[in-house]
């Protein structure tokens, strides 16, 4: 009997390992500080990094879970998530690479790329004036990344189409509307909305501005999704779409669809409420199908799987 109890004692922490705030407090005490310093340097140079990291985090978690599979480079034998059409304009990979290089020198094979994405996103939100919040860490990196598995709602999706993807990942309508509020610091290429420039559900003054920027010149410039406080993480996005100043079709539909317009109206009038709801939603998103314990691996280079011994 004593022998059996001893075995259970040693197996339990491995079998039931989970995420927790301060996971690296002993194994790599400066981990979160290092990530924040790297993000701050990049934010100081380019404040659109907040929107880029939010998008990366979302695109990673909604495929195989939050396992950094979006960071893997394609090889001759495998087209990775990074090369899927939906991820063609995802950026910010160099921020994750920089943090990983420093952490590998300080704490080799300790801090996962999945946790770096989560922490970097959290830090970039607060730098843009958004809420400060704790995130649990302890994620491990995935061992699979296939472009064929990428199925994400696009800018031309309806609310019901987008919701199908969110509910498949355990997220509610309220959480979807809240997470799309991250577009308050986002940008989009003209190719994502050029077909909307004749849409009667777009404010004429916005249509005129976008028409000038997106003239058919062979270029594909970007515009801010929140045309008012473009670099500030606030609830202005909702105020804009209520006024029919949504750039993307999906964004505008949030304010028009009967299922979501009440939520949009509520968030447009309550910045503090948006911040609280956003924290709850993004923390939940960051826990989608995470790998913990002995699952997956801790990559030494976020762009490639570890070589087998």
From TrEMBL:
<keyword id="KW-0575">Peroxidase</keyword>
<feature type="binding site">
    <location>
        <position position="226"/>
    </location>
    <ligand>
        <name>Ca(2+) 2</name>
    </ligand>
</feature>
<dbReference type="InterPro" id="IPR019794">
    <property type="entry name" value="Peroxidases_AS"/>
</dbReference>
<feature type="binding site">
    <location>
        <position position="65"/>
    </location>
    <ligand>
        <name>Ca(2+) 1</name>
    </ligand>
</feature>
<keyword id="KW-0560">Oxidoreductase</keyword>
<feature type="binding site">
    <location>
        <position position="184"/>
    </location>
    <ligand>
        <name>Ca(2+) 2</name>
    </ligand>
</feature>
<feature type="disulfide bond">
    <location>
        <begin position="28"/>
        <end position="107"/>
    </location>
</feature>
<dbReference type="GO" id="GO:0005576">
    <property type="term" value="C:extracellular region"/>
</dbReference>
<keyword id="KW-0479">Metal-binding</keyword>
<keyword id="KW-0732">Signal</keyword>
<feature type="binding site">
    <location>
        <position position="60"/>
    </location>
    <ligand>
        <name>Ca(2+) 1</name>
    </ligand>
</feature>
<feature type="binding site" description="axial binding residue">
    <location>
        <position position="183"/>
    </location>
    <ligand>
        <name>heme b</name>
    </ligand>
</feature>
<dbReference type="InterPro" id="IPR010255">
    <property type="entry name" value="Haem_peroxidase_sf"/>
</dbReference>
<feature type="binding site">
    <location>
        <position position="69"/>
    </location>
    <ligand>
        <name>Ca(2+) 1</name>
    </ligand>
</feature>
<keyword id="KW-0376">Hydrogen peroxide</keyword>
<keyword id="KW-1015">Disulfide bond</keyword>
<feature type="site" description="Transition state stabilizer">
    <location>
        <position position="55"/>
    </location>
</feature>
<feature type="disulfide bond">
    <location>
        <begin position="61"/>
        <end position="66"/>
    </location>
</feature>
<feature type="disulfide bond">
    <location>
        <begin position="113"/>
        <end position="302"/>
    </location>
</feature>
<feature type="binding site">
    <location>
        <position position="63"/>
    </location>
    <ligand>
        <name>Ca(2+) 1</name>
    </ligand>
</feature>
<feature type="binding site">
    <location>
        <position position="67"/>
    </location>
    <ligand>
        <name>Ca(2+) 1</name>
    </ligand>
</feature>
<protein>
    <recommendedName>
        <fullName>Peroxidase</fullName>
        <ecNumber>1.11.1.7</ecNumber>
    </recommendedName>
</protein>
<dbReference type="Pfam" id="PF00141">
    <property type="entry name" value="peroxidase"/>
</dbReference>
<dbReference type="GO" id="GO:0042744">
    <property type="term" value="P:hydrogen peroxide catabolic process"/>
</dbReference>
<dbReference type="InterPro" id="IPR000823">
    <property type="entry name" value="Peroxidase_pln"/>
</dbReference>
<dbReference type="InterPro" id="IPR002016">
    <property type="entry name" value="Haem_peroxidase"/>
</dbReference>
<feature type="binding site">
    <location>
        <position position="81"/>
    </location>
    <ligand>
        <name>Ca(2+) 1</name>
    </ligand>
</feature>
<feature type="binding site">
    <location>
        <position position="234"/>
    </location>
    <ligand>
        <name>Ca(2+) 2</name>
    </ligand>
</feature>
<keyword id="KW-0964">Secreted</keyword>
<keyword id="KW-0408">Iron</keyword>
<dbReference type="InterPro" id="IPR033905">
    <property type="entry name" value="Secretory_peroxidase"/>
</dbReference>
<dbReference type="GO" id="GO:0140825">
    <property type="term" value="F:lactoperoxidase activity"/>
</dbReference>
<feature type="signal peptide">
    <location>
        <begin position="1"/>
        <end position="17"/>
    </location>
</feature>
<feature type="binding site">
    <location>
        <position position="153"/>
    </location>
    <ligand>
        <name>substrate</name>
    </ligand>
</feature>
<dbReference type="GO" id="GO:0046872">
    <property type="term" value="F:metal ion binding"/>
</dbReference>
<keyword id="KW-0349">Heme</keyword>
<dbReference type="GO" id="GO:0020037">
    <property type="term" value="F:heme binding"/>
</dbReference>
<comment type="function">
    <text>Removal of H(2)O(2), oxidation of toxic reductants, biosynthesis and degradation of lignin, suberization, auxin catabolism, response to environmental stresses such as wounding, pathogen attack and oxidative stress. These functions might be dependent on each isozyme/isoform in each plant tissue.</text>
</comment>
<feature type="disulfide bond">
    <location>
        <begin position="190"/>
        <end position="214"/>
    </location>
</feature>
<comment type="similarity">
    <text>Belongs to the peroxidase family. Classical plant (class III) peroxidase subfamily.</text>
</comment>
<feature type="binding site">
    <location>
        <position position="229"/>
    </location>
    <ligand>
        <name>Ca(2+) 2</name>
    </ligand>
</feature>
<dbReference type="GO" id="GO:0006979">
    <property type="term" value="P:response to oxidative stress"/>
</dbReference>
């Amino acid at each position: 009997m004593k022998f059996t109890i001893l075995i259970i004692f040693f197996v339990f922490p491995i079998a039931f390992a989970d995420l927790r705030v301060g996971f690296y407090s002993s194994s790599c005490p400066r981990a979160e500080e290092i990530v924040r310093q790297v993000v701050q340097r990049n934010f100081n140079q380019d404040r659109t990094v907040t929107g880029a990291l939010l998008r990366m985090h979302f695109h990673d978690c909604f495929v195989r879970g939050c396992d950094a599979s979006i960071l893997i480079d394609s090889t001759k034998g495998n087209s990775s998530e990074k090369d899927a059409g939906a991820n063609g304009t995802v950026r910010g990979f160099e921020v994750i690479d920089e943090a990983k290089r420093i952490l590998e020198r300080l704490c080799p094979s300790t801090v996962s790329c999945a946790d770096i994405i989560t922490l970097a996103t959290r830090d970039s939100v607060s730098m843009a004036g958004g809420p400060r919040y704790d995130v649990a860490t302890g994620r491990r990196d995935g061992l699979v990344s296939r472009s064929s598995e990428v199925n994400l709602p696009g800018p031309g999706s309806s609310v019901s189409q987008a919701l199908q993807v969110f509910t498949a990942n355990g997220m509610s309508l309220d959480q979807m509307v809240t997470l799309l509020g991250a577009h308050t610091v986002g940008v989009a290429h003209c190719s994502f909305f050029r077909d909307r420039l004749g849409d009667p559900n777009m404010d004429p003054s916005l249509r005129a501005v976008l028409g000038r920027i997106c003239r058919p010149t062979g270029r594909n410039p970007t515009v801010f999704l929140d045309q008012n406080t473009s670099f500030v993480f606030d609830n202005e996005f909702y105020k804009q779409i209520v006024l029919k100043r949504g750039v993307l079709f999906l964004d505008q539909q949030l304010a028009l669809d009967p299922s979501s317009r009440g939520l949009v109206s509520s968030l447009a009038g309550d910045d503090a409420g948006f911040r609280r709801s956003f924290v709850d939603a993004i923390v939940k998103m960051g826990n989608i199908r995470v790998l913990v314990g002995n699952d997956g691996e801790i990559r030494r280079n976020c762009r490639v799987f570890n070589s087998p011994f």
